[in-house]
Amino acid sequence: xxxxxxxxxxxxxxxxxxxxxxxxxxxxxxxxxxxxxxxxxxxxxxxxxxxxxxxxxxxxxxxxxxxxxxxxxxxxxxxxxxxxxxxxxxxxxxxxxxxxxxxxxxxxxxxxxxxxxxxxxxxxxxxxxxxxxxxxxxxxxxxxxxxxxxxxxxxxxxxxxxxxxxxxxxxxxxxxxxxxxxxxxxxxxxxxxxxxxxxxxxxxxx
Length: 206
Prior knowledge:
- This protein has 206 residues and is mainly beta.
- It has 2 domains: 1-30; 32-204, Lipocalin.
- 9% of the residues lie in helices and 47% in strands.
- The chain contains 2 helices and 11 strands.
- Strands 1-4-5-7-8-9-10-11 form an 8-stranded antiparallel β-barrel.
- The protein starts with a helix and ends with a strand.
């Protein structure tokens, strides 16, 4: 029941509803609001059950294929009084890639593409945060895939922050960036750019 209510709250937030629409939330459960200052300072851990990491890849110029990575982990160090001092790490298990094309996920995880057996993780480690306004910013960092590391910048939008639930404040974001397949030796089949999108919630741990 709690999960159902939380999902309904998130849907309401996405549709632009305000906090009173969630008046029936159970005691100790608080809806996220569009105010980064409501996420208390401290260490946060990514909630993998409320996180999606996807890659949007050109399908030989006809459309964008969406690949999702189902196993994620990450940490966020956050202080609302000093947003530019934040630090972020996110990693995915490359073998957890999923696609609606039957059998293609296994091929993508194999030696022809992601080489997951030799390189089981892809990761992003931030080096600088740049606040643009109350709900937008940029995060510079280093992205590592298949043993190769390149600079990468994500455009970040705050989706919600607040007291969360079970005494764990939360902050939710969407981050979007682009990598060049050629930087990692991926075939030209993937085009000149792959868009990476991270939709994530982080829960305070300390």
